[in-house]
Write a structure and sequence with these properties.
Beta Polymerase, domain 2, six-stranded mixed beta sheet, two-stranded parallel sheet
């Protein structure tokens, strides 16, 4: 069984390297600044002892005042996992950096989030709709979709 690492413990390691990049941390997860997401993700993947080499999933939630994108990362070598989150506060043009360069498995998942929530992943190799057709208006999983 995979052991979930404490967001608080990992946040202290991240803060040593990227001061001010962690917004909040709990025993269950940590939230990083959206502009620091790619640097933090690379650190989590490439740092010995952490080695988060596997992306289980990426998903999003609309909280009306912001979007939250959650990444469940795992280390196959160390058999541990961590939930990392980032927030988008711009409802008109929400955006985060793409992590497809680190975990290829994020490709379709980021496209799904773009299609259904309208969150753009900057640097994604093919940011286009995956479920709905070109020309479809809106993003149906947004709380304000009508």
């Amino acid at each position: 069984m995979t052991v979930a690492l404490s967001g608080k413990e990992v946040a202290s390691k991240i803060e040593e390297k990227f001061s001010g990049s962690v917004v909040e941390s709990t025993p269950e997860n940590l939230v990083v600044k959206s502009d620091q997401l790619l640097d933090v993700a690379r650190f989590l993947k490439e740092t010995g002892g952490l080695d988060f080499d596997y992306l289980n999933f990426v998903t999003a939630v609309d909280y009306y005042d912001h979007f939250e994108v959650a990444y469940l990362l795992s280390s196959l070598e160390h058999n541990h996992s961590l939930m990392v989150k980032a927030r988008c506060y711009d409802r008109e043009n929400p955006a985060l950096p793409s992590v497809t360069g680190l975990w290829q498995g994020a490709d379709f998942q980021e496209r799904e989030i773009y299609d259904l929530f309208g969150i753009n992943f900057e640097g994604h190799p093919s940011m286009k709709r995956i479920f709905l057709w070109d020309g479809f208006e809106g993003h149906p999983l947004r709380k304000d979709y009508i």
